[in-house]
Specification:
The protein is an alpha/beta fold. It folds into three domains: 2-10 and 22-183 and 251-432, Glycosidases (TIM Barrel), CATH 3.20.20.80; 440-663, Class I glutamine amidotransferase (GATase) domain (Rossmann fold), CATH 3.40.50.880; 671-740, Golgi alpha-mannosidase II (Immunoglobulin-like, Sandwich), CATH 2.60.40. The chain contains 20 helices and 28 strands. The chain has a nine-stranded mixed beta sheet, with helices on both faces. The longest helix has 26 residues, at 240-265.
Length: 743
């Protein structure tokens, strides 16, 4: 774990330029070529492109996000062609726009493969993947790595000369292998080339220190380091080797991003450097064969990390409001963790989406207004609409454009521009604004995906690499249940469970907590002892981080904290069960309430007089235990209620989770009466920004109460608001600036 901690801390060593510009950008790479492709003859098209940039600026955008692919930028070794970038920088400077450059290294030049024929990606099956414009070549190869960083440095040398150049996105939607799928390979996993194996061995040497220690951990009999290979098989003995392989993938992605960051910062230290995920870890799996990053690790390597945001992508029915909120709050949680500066929306869906024959629902102006303000309400520090023109080729052909492919400007583009104008007018305010600290923590734990090693059957798929399973649904279920009460929720990485990080929270959710690192047990115990309230679902700490079972469950000594132990556990036919509440000790939950649950029934035995049975299964077995520990309190649940609520929301479950917030003493930053609205808040010095969303199809008249004395104004119109009360039309967003008045 030492290496992981070093990676998580790495971002604090970076030069941190003071924020001075809030990009509200349209993706535009010159003409109608789709990223990462470029149109030829940039100089000849300069005046045509000027017209595009003028239209972009006239709507209210203050930046463009262009791109450069390695194959176009370095067609022969050491010969650089940056004419497209040069033209766009010249135009942007003349037209008063800033430029963010997206770099695509997966679109790699063929000369790299010819020079380094041993640099091709190798699947777990042994299949060697030749690059076909993507995915390029394995960065674990020393020659490829040197060439990659050399290209970044050369690009930085050219870009830094322009005052219009604001910064970078160094890696779009990072994976080990990007945007290439061998559809004929089942369960393809990368990379197993000799260079990746050597890098893995070096990682293991640093982690374990000796071959003897590795043999003990893996239960193996290696006699030399060169015998060690990445895990490929599932065995009945131990899967510590598989856990190490998956953790290595996530850490090496962080190292690779950091190397890119340092390459450009050495040349242009005063320009911002970022990266963004395809989707936050809430929707991805560390078991993904193409290699998924850890958002917390990645966020520490750059000035800003962020995410793509495609609420409708290519689906007939778009994502619902709590789903969208969870995505944005997850990105917020990673961007602001450990004193971070925030996050960027690297791609925000600009128009209807397509993936081959799949076409999404219509993207409306109201959609773009709500999506954009939703990101701003979480403290995003940059938003980049994907894209100005629809995709002109590929399986996304015709999709995702703010305007039409023939250049017709749409009302949704105008609406996005109107929001951009408000941000530009209040740029300093938005740059300073930060989300208030939540009092509720939901634990993100990548280890729970690894229970069982390769033997587990993981569901994986979707156009954005989303994992569909209990891990995701358990986090979403907690968030969904609290969403309607406007209780802010932070997602906290399991490796950040320590006294300092936990101190601000009053309520900690350990949903689907089957595997925990050993040091987390002590951190949780100390926090509860000091007064925290913890809720854990079934089989808490069943395994430690090596995949070894605890002698008593809850494990890691947490049976003492939760005042109970597991005496039996069973899977339920059909995976559906229920907990019948048996006490009035939890305010808001009545004796006799039936709470839907899924998958397991874990029988829990109270261990002392401070513990009481709080719920039972249908046959009377204890299904939940309330207990006290030190100055704090705990609730152990013998099944999975959060997943059940995500899969089939019910009012009784929502009331239960909201009662837990009251039980823990969680405070609401804003009180709302008069109508169901979403309310989010940012703090900017003594000022507050309050965002009120009416997601309903009928008007509502909410009344807000914010502690303190305030002078209120509508941020969009600039008009004074004599009262925090307004009639909101369907899909309306009300943005308020509150300025403190003397007491």
């Amino acid at each position: 774990m030492l290496r992981l901690c070093l990676l998580l801390a790495a971002g604090t060593l970076a030069a941190q330029p003071a924020p001075e510009f809030f990009p509200m950008a349209a993706w535009y790479g010159g003409g109608k070529a789709r990223a990462p492709m470029l149109e030829p003859d940039a100089r000849a098209k300069k005046e045509t492109w000027r017209g595009d940039l003028r239209r972009i600026k006239s709507l209210g955008f203050n930046a463009i996000r262009c791109w450069m692919d390695w194959a176009s930028g370095e067609p022969a070794e050491g010969r650089y062609q940056f004419d497209t970038l040069e033209v766009l920088l010249e135009l942007a400077e003349q037209e008063g726009l800033k430029v963010i450059v997206q770099v695509y290294m997966d679109a790699a030049p063929d000369w790299v493969g010819r020079k380094y024929p041993d640099s091709l990606f190798v699947a777990a099956s042994g299949y060697v993947m030749k690059s076909e414009s993507s995915p390029g070549y394995c960065n674990d190869h020393a020659g490829v790595r040197q060439a990659t960083l050399g290209f970044y440095a050369a690009l930085a040398e050219r870009a830094r000369r322009s005052p219009a150049f604001h910064g970078w996105d160094l890696w779009s939607e990072p994976h080990v292998i990007n945007w290439a799928t061998a559809t004929f390979l089942p369960n393809a996993e990368y990379c197993f080339c000799p260079h990746s194996a050597a890098r893995f061995r070096a990682w293991l040497e640093k982690k374990y220190g000796s071959l003897e220690a590795l043999n003990r951990a893996w239960y193996r009999r290696f006699t030399a380091w060169d015998e060690v290979e990445p895990n490929r098989l599932s065995t009945i003995l131990s899967y510590s080797d598989y856990i190490d392989w998956r953790l290595f993938i996530r850490e090496k992605l962080g190292e690779d991003l950091r190397a890119r960051y340092e390459a450009v910062k050495r040349v242009a230290p005063d320009r911002v450097a970022t990266s963004h995920a395809a989707a936050p870890n809430l929707f991805t799996s560390p078991l993904a064969g193409e290699g998924s990053p850890d958002d917390w690790i990645m966020a520490r390597q750059v000035d800003y990390y962020g995410t793509s945001f495609y609420p409708k992508h290519s689906y007939a029915v778009g994502r619902d409001v709590p789903w969208r909120g969870a995505l944005l709050d997850f990105a917020r949680s990673t961007g602001y963790a450990r004193g971070g500066r925030g996050f960027w929306i690297g791609e925000l869906q600009g128009g209807f989406g397509t993936v081959a024959l799949n076409v999404s629902g219509t993207v409306t102006p109201e959609d773009l207004r709500i999506w954009t303000w939703s990101a701003l309400a979480r403290g995003a520090k940059g938003i980049h609409f994907y894209a100005w023109y629809p995709m002109s080729s590929g399986y996304e052909s015709g999709g995702y454009g703010l305007i039409q492919l023939d250049g017709t400007v749409t009302e949704r583009a105008r609406e996005a521009g109107r929001v951009a104008q408000v941000v530009a007018k209040n740029q300093k305010l938005f740059l300073e604004a930060r989300p208030p600290r939540s009092q509720v923590a939901v634990v993100f734990n990548p280890l729970v995906y690894m229970v069982g090693g390769r033997q587990r059957a993981a569901t994986y798929g979707g156009p954005q690499g989303e994992a569909g399973g209990i891990e995701r649904d358990s986090m979403l279920g907690v968030y969904r249940a609290l969403f309607s009460s406007n209780v802010p929720v932070d997602f906290v990485h399991v490796n950040d469970l320590n006294p300092e990080t936990l101190a601000p929270y009053k309520l900690l959710f350990l949903q689907y907590p089957l595997m925990l690192p050993e040091r987390a047990g002590g951190a949780i115990a100390g926090w509860v002892r000091a007064g925290g309230a913890a809720v854990a679902e079934a089989r808490l700490a069943w395994n430690n981080e090596r995949g070894y079972a605890s002698e008593i469950i809850p494990g890691l000594g947490l049976h003492e904290v939760f005042g109970c132990r597991e005496t039996a556990v069973q899977s339920i036919p059909g995976s559906r069960t229920a907990l019948r509440w048996a006490t009035n000790a939890l305010p808001g939950v009545r004796e006799g309430d039936t709470l839907p649950a899924r998958l397991y029934e874990e029988t829990l035995e109270p261990l002392n007089e401070r513990a009481q049975v709080a719920a039972r299964f249908a046959d009377g077995r204890p299904a939940a235990v309330l207990s006290r520990y030190g100055r704090g309190k705990t609730l152990a649940l013998g099944s999975y209620l959060a997943m059940a609520h995500q899969q089939q929301p019910e009012a009784v479950a929502e009331r239960f989770f909201q009662a837990l917030a009251d039980w823990a003493g969680v405070e609401r930053p804003v009180e709302v009466t008069g109508g169901p609205v979403e309310v989010r808040m940012l703090e900017a010095g003594a000022d507050r920004l309050v965002f009120v969303f009416n997601h309903r199809q009928q008007a509502v008249e909410p009344v807000l109460r914010v502690p303190g004395r305030w002078t209120a104004s509508d941020l969009v119109t600039g008009q004074a608001e004599p009262a925090l009360h307004k009639r909101l039309a369907p899909n309306e967003v009300w943005v308020l600036r509150l300025q403190a008045r003397a007491q």
